[in-house]
Structure formats: C-alpha cells, structure tokens
Specification:
Length: 274
C-alpha cells in the first residue's frame, strides 16, 4: 500500500463542500421558527435508527467484522439504515474500516491517531487518501452485491427521499432537525471512535495500538467506546467485556439472538469478561 503524509495528499473538495454544507445548514436549527419538540424527537429517533442500528449494528458489528450472522433481509435493512447516516456508501465504509484494523495506528491506517486528534477525527476525510484505492481488496464479500452497490451509488438520493418524507410530515423543522442536526450528531459521535478512543481512557488488553476504552464515547455510540476491548477481540459481538462496561448494541444482538435473528454470535474468551 502506498503511503503519503496529509501534507502531500490533495484535498477532496467534494467532501469538503459536502461536510461544510451539512454543518452550516444544521445551524439553522438555532432559528426559533425551526424548533419544535416534535422535530427534536425526530432527530433523536433517527439518530438511534441510523447511528445505533445502521452504523454500529449493521455496518460495523455485522458486516465489517461478521461478529454474528443474520438473515440476508435483516442485513440489507441494517445496511440501508446505515446508508441513511450519510457517512459514505457501505462498501467504502466497510473497506476503510477493515484497512484501519489491519494497520491500526500505523501510516497506512486511514485515520492513524499518531497524526493528531484533528486528523483521526475529520481531517483524513478531507483528502484523497491511498486507502481509497485498496477498498475493493478488502470488500470481496460485498463489492459485487447489487443491494450494496445500490446503497453505495445512491446514498444522496436516498437521503433526499427521507428529506421529502420529513418535509411532508412536519415541514422545514423536521428536515433541519431530522436530516442536518441528526447527521452532525451521528458524524461526530462516530468520529469520536476514531479520535477520542485512541487518546482518552484506559487499556484493558494488549492491542498493539493506541485504542482505549472511553466511557463517554460508549455512551454516545451505544457501546462502541469500549474500543480497546474491540481492537483486542475484533471478532467479538460484545465490546463491553467488564460488567460495568454497558454495551447497548450487545444487548440488541442478544435480543436478536433470542428471537432467532442472530446466529453464530462470536465472543471474546470467557476469562476476559470480568
């Protein structure tokens, strides 16, 4: 894999404009005319749907790591919800995440935390990075799937469709809060897993990188903040290994397992669950 420093990488102006636009439009939420308690409720509900079910459960634990198996229809539903988080299409997201784990906190890592908090949180996305070219090699299991390709290629139109539904349900307040405020929330809370959990917290296991368990990131991301545990046991569906490490997504997987929708659930060794 070819490596280049951030100083030598060309800017991706499409992403820069995309990110800036979403954040700027989200500021319209501060106008009193755009606020309602219903709109706030829509934002938090969709934050859970797209962040918890889509990104954390779907993109991450199910598809990226195959820590459990689910019926294909449920997998597609979770992938669709993850696409609504607008963090890139599922193929790109999964590929870059797998590359991150293979090279964690070394130069080929797309968001190597040794380059600083800003780089690992957001900066890496604002450049054309070498890892983008390696995504097909790390997504052999999904890159030819028609549904994954639909979500990959039509992420923005899918989001526009959700925006139209919200507009007809509650006007511009629903759009501002349900799309833009919600996206900013999901963006930064997810990015904290790349940045904050490689800087703040404690290490319970040897993972050969800077990953740490950070309680407040775990709270914001439904259990993803127990990041040192995850890097030590990437295959494990459960990230909160100690009894006090609350992992909402693990509880969700247990419910799915109870009703027969999650099978072959992979776990860290029992001796490491304190």
């Amino acid at each position: 894999m070819t490596v280049a420093t951030s100083q030598k990488l060309p800017y991706d102006w499409t992403i820069i404009i995309y990110m800036a636009s979403i954040h700027l439009i989200a500021l319209l939420a501060f106008l009193p005319s755009n606020f309602s308690w219903q709109a706030l409720g829509v934002a938090f509900f969709l934050y859970w749907v797209t962040g918890a079910l889509g990104i954390t459960l779907g993109f991450h634990r199910l598809v990226s790591h195959r820590s459990f198996q689910a019926p294909k229809l449920l997998e597609y539903l979770l992938v669709f919800l993850g696409t609504l988080a607008c963090q890139g299409g599922p193929i790109q997201w999964v590929g870059l995440h797998r590359i991150h784990h293979k090279y964690s906190d070394t130069e080929p890592d797309p968001h190597d935390s040794n380059r600083g908090f800003w780089w690992s949180h957001l900066g890496w996305m604002l450049h054309h990075i070498p890892a983008d070219n390696d995504v097909p090699r790390y997504t052999q299991d999904i890159k030819d799937d028609p549904f994954y390709n639909f979500c990959q290629n039509f992420m923005v139109p899918i989001q526009l469709g959700l925006g139209l539904i919200l507009y007809f349900l509650g006007g511009w307040p629903f759009v501002i809060w349900g799309i833009f405020v919600r996206l900013v929330m999901v963006f930064h809370f997810t990015w904290f897993v790349n940045s904050a959990t490689h800087k703040f917290g404690y290490q319970s296991h040897e993972s050969n990188d800077n990953s740490r368990n950070c309680w407040w990131v775990a709270l914001l991301t439904f259990g993803e903040g127990w990041h040192n545990n995850h890097h030590a046991y990437q295959y494990s569906a459960r990230h909160g290994l100690a009894w006090w490490e609350i992992d909402i997504t693990w509880m969700t997987i247990k419910i799915l397992e109870f009703v027969g929708l999650a099978k072959n659930v992979k776990l860290a060794p029992v001796s490491d669950n304190k």
